[in-house]
Every structure is written in C-alpha cells, then in structure tokens.
C-alpha cells in the first residue's frame, strides 16, 4: 500500500484533467450542440433523460420557506459561514486607480460583471457549501445578477443556502445541459457572462468547451488533497482528513507524504478502521486506490513532489508549517498545521473552497473576488505628452508595417 516517490513521480508529471477519461467529451459536445440549436426544448428533454425531470426555475419564495424550516443548528452554521466568507472577501484588495501625473491621466477602472452563473454540484451530494463559497464572493464583488444551477431534485439545504447567499435566480438543472443553458441562453434561462463553480467531468468538460463564449474562473473538478506529515502528526487525524476528501467521489485523490514509515503504517491501519463504518466507504476506497501513502526521503523531496503535483489542497501537518510555507509554489490552497484541516476550509474557515484541480494550480488559483471583476484601462494623455509620445509610436507602427497607425499618430503633432 505504501508507494515510493519513483512510482508517483511519472504520474504527477503527466497529470492531465482527470475528467478527460472515458467518452464523456463526446456526450458533452452532443448536449451542448442540442441546447444551442433547440434551446428549452432540448434542455428539458436532456434533463428528463439524464436526471429524470425537466428543468424548472425555483422561485425565491421556496428558498425563504426552506430557510425558515431549517433547524437552529444548521441556520447558525450557514449564517456563520456567510459572515466569515463575506468578511474574508471584503479584505481582498481589488481597487483600481485613476492618477493624474505629468503626462495626464492613466488608470484602471474595476467593474463587476453584470451576470454570473454559479454551478452548484448536486449529483452525489447537495453541496450547499459550494453555493455559499461562490455566490457570496460574487455578491461582495457587486455582480448584478447571480444565476444558480443545481441538478434536480434540488435539496432544501441548497434552497436555504441560496437565500442566505442573497442569490438572484435558481434553476434546477445539472451537468453539461446546465452549462449549455447558461452559456448560450434559452427562452427561460438567461445567458451569463461568466460561469463559476466546480462539478464532475460533464460539467468541467462543458465549461472548457464553451470557454470564449463565456468566461470562467477555471476548471475545478474532482477534489484532491495532499498532506505532508512529520513525526508530530496524529495518524487518526491524517486518516480522517484523507477520507474527508476521498469520500467525494471515485475520481477524487487523497495523498499522504511522509519520511516516517511507521507513521504511514499507522495511517494505513487507521484508514481501514475508519473506513469500516463510513457510509461512503466504497467511494472512498476507489479514490484511495488512485492515490495513497508515499514514503519520501525528506521534506525537500515531499515539497518537490507536491509542487510537481500541484494539489487542490496542500495540508502541512507539520510541527512548524510556517518554516516550509515559503517553498510552496503550486497549490490551490494551503492549510497550516493539523488543526487547520481542509474540512474546515470546505465549510467555514472563510476563503472559498472552490480551488483548481488536476494540476491546474500550476497556473490558476482559488476563487477570488477579482474573478468577478473586470479591469478596464483608462488613457487620458495631455497635449504635451502626445507631442512627445506620438513620434515614437509612429516609428513602431512603421516597423510593424501599419502606416495608418503611424499617420493617425502624426496627425496629432503640432507644427
Ligand atoms: N474543486 C473544487 O473546488 C470542488 C468543490 C466542490 C466539489 N467539487 C467536485 O465536484 C464534483 C461534483 O460532482 P457530482 O457528480 O457530485 O455532481 P455534479 O452536479 O457536478 O454532476 C451531476 C450531473 O452530472 C450529469 N451526469 C451524470 N452522469 C452523466 C452521464 N452519464 N451522462 C451525461 N451527464 C451525466 C447529470 O446531469 C447530473 O445532474 C465532485 O467531483 C467534487 O469533488 C470540486
Ligand atoms: N472539498 C470539496 C472541494 O474543494 C468541497 C466540499 C464541499 N462540501 C464538502 N467539501
Ligand atoms: Zn470536501
């Protein structure tokens, strides 16, 4: 069960979108094409075929009723999560600038997106936390309209979370057909400017296919975690944290790297013990079979492999995690110390749990306020600056063979 660094290095080097496996892409393209061409008729038909019912919009009245029916414990949890997520994103620095200098005015306007679609997974579990973790930052950013999509039958917890997050509309639709509806628009579903949120292979592949027609924050897919542990770590907590991500789906991954063989052996035993009464044990076992325990030489090798893998979650279950934080280059999010576990990040720590997977943390980060904003540069040069800069621009234009550009610049020059 314990793997060597050599066994995993090649796998890590060749990592690609997990979602590409199988024939899902063909299915996704067919669904996208049908919804683009036929609108609502195809959307309802496909939803009926795959998810057993047509698409419907769920009115806000039903969200409020679901919220009012919550037990006090869940209501408190959702409200506390909302406060913490909001407070976190209010701290993100995103301001533009407009500065008058010797050359006139230069700056950047920062504007929220008009309409954003948020996909809330609901296939294997109703991820109401994902709704909060995506719709709340959208609202903090000032997005005009937040349109939610989640597979039918929508769980009451998702309706309540929509109410807590202050979203605008909610459609019971899932998978590639939901992404198609949000990207192309139909008679009933409004076309959005950007689609945010994670999902399974159908959702991720559909997002990738419609990129360009709409924006997106990235391609967050099946969850993954990589823990680096030293001798100070508690095997029971390590096993619990691995299982917390492995239970998401058979295509999830949960890795533990340590230079302490005895610790890995104790975690292996502990995994078996904890799996014995875990409701989603069968799913978790499949995920663990794709990942597992790795005996590394030392901390340096652990960090080198972690940066190569670029995990969604990097958990530093170390006596002194701050000592190695500076060496982390590729990760969706970092969790410091065994108490700051990833499951806290999933629900209530503050930062969104929507993070890059399948190695996309090499070039993308966790969901941020700026994902909901556009930056618009502003140019307002003075006459004096134009006299100095236009000849230089004209010279560059002629080098590019663009005479009209050069002349447009030279017409600004005063004798
Ligand atoms: N990276 C992150 O930030 C993050 C956060 C939360 C969840 N996740 C991941 O999101 C994923 C959620 O997946 P899920 O399946 O539970 O929910 P989902 O809502 O993403 O997918 C369910 C939908 O998939 C479609 N579908 C299923 N089988 C199909 C088939 N054979 N053909 C066509 N369409 C099909 C159906 O329309 C269904 O409604 C999990 O892998 C989880 O790990 C990631
Ligand atoms: N770990 C998942 C992906 O980051 C998010 C999640 C939602 N609910 C529980 N967990
Ligand atoms: Zn999780």
Automatic annotation (TrEMBL):
Binding positions for NAD(+) per the UniProt entry = 119, 177, 200
- Which InterPro entries does the record match to this protein? Ald_DH/histidinol_DH, Histidinol_DH_CS, Histidinol_DH_monofunct, Hstdl_DH
Annotated positions binding substrate: 223, 245, 248, 313, 346, 400, 405
Q: Name one GO cellular component term.
A: cytosol
- Is this entry keyworded DNA-binding? no
Name the catalysed reactions: L-histidinol + 2 NAD(+) + H2O = L-histidine + 2 NADH + 3 H(+)
User: Which cofactor(s) does the record list?
Assistant: Zn(2+)
**Presence of keyword Secreted:** no
Described purpose of this protein according to its UniProt entry:
Catalyzes the sequential NAD-dependent oxidations of L-histidinol to L-histidinaldehyde and then to L-histidine.
Q: Return the similarity comment.
A: Belongs to the histidinol dehydrogenase family.
* This protein's name: Histidinol dehydrogenase
Origin species, per record, is Meiothermus luteus
Lineage of the source organism? Bacteria, Thermotogati, Deinococcota, Deinococci, Thermales
- Gene name, per UniProt, is hisD
